[in-house]
Amino acid sequence: MTNTNPADAVRQATDSDWFERFARAGHVVSGLLHLLIAYIIVRLAFGDAGNADQSGALAIFASTPGGRIALWVAVVAFVAMALWRAAEMITGPHPADPRPDDDDDWFHRGKAAALTVVYLAFAWSAAQFALGHGKSSGQQNAGLSAQLMGSTLGKLVLIIAGGVIVAVGGYHVYKGASQKFFKDLKIDGDNPTVKISGMVGYVAKGVVLAGAGILVIVAALTADPSKATGVDGAVKTVAGWPAGQFLLILAALGLAAYGVYCFVMARYARM
């Protein structure tokens, strides 16, 4: 009886065309969610109500005819993407399309592990909305933050979490500005649509994430959980600034660009 190396078994699994297609569908769903969030931000810029985050986008899905079915499709796609990221955690990046110059270190394996958790969380949220139990992410974040603020250790956890979110935002800005995202694609930098959507999308998403992380830190330092509401809180904070409407429209355009780039990844990402 032969012993199978776990990494070899995972690589064999990623050779499945169906597995790769379902994982790529995760990029499509992510693109749609970013476009919907951009739409919500535009509405907020002109005085309408809404939650400018993943929960707000999922709520729009749930309220449309056939939306519940679409949400279950999203659940499957997100789970497939989570499993693919888990495979990258074991085998290294791009198991279906490796290159000799791929970075395979603790940072990239850690990033794959983090993305596994993120996509599983997306799948859980989509399932909750499909079942009719969806809740605002901002309210849940504020509630959890309020509980953590009850102790010094909890406040420290929030400050660290905020710092991590700021770092992730900074990484997005760097990746967009330096065009490092092309290493994740099968195509080069000659396509203007890919270049613009990738650069603008990554930078805009990074700025929004960094803003959300800063608000988490501020919330912990001021013992005000209402500030720790994630992306929605960051967007609504900007809405109150003198140039808020203009900045929100810029943010919406940037997140829409990232949504377009997600569709590019669905077609051209190295998996």
Which features does this protein show?
single chain, 271 residues, mainly alpha, 10 helices, 75% helix
Structure description:
With 271 residues, the chain is an all-alpha fold. It is 75% helix and 0% strand. Helix 2 runs antiparallel to helix 10 (244-268), helix 3 runs parallel beside helix 5 (106-130) and helix 8 (192-222) crosses helix 9 (230-239). The longest helix is centred in the C-terminal third of the chain and has 31 residues, at 192-222. It is globular and about 55 Å long. The mean pLDDT is 91.
Q: Give the integer mean of the pLDDT values.
A: 91
Find the count of extended strands (DSSP E, 2+ residues).
Answer: 0
Broad structural category: mainly alpha
The global form is: globular
CA(first)-CA(last) distance: 32 Å
Rounded to an integer in angstroms, the radius of gyration calculated over CA atoms is 19 Å
Provide a short characterization of the protein structure:
With 271 residues, the chain is mainly α. The chain has ten helices and no strands.
Topology summary:
Layout: H1 6-14, H2 17-45, H3 54-63, H4 67-91, H5 106-130, H6 137-148, H7 152-177, H8 192-222, H9 230-239, H10 244-268
Helix pairs in contact: 1-4, 2-3, 2-4, 2-10, 3-4, 3-5, 4-5, 7-8, 8-9, 8-10, 9-10
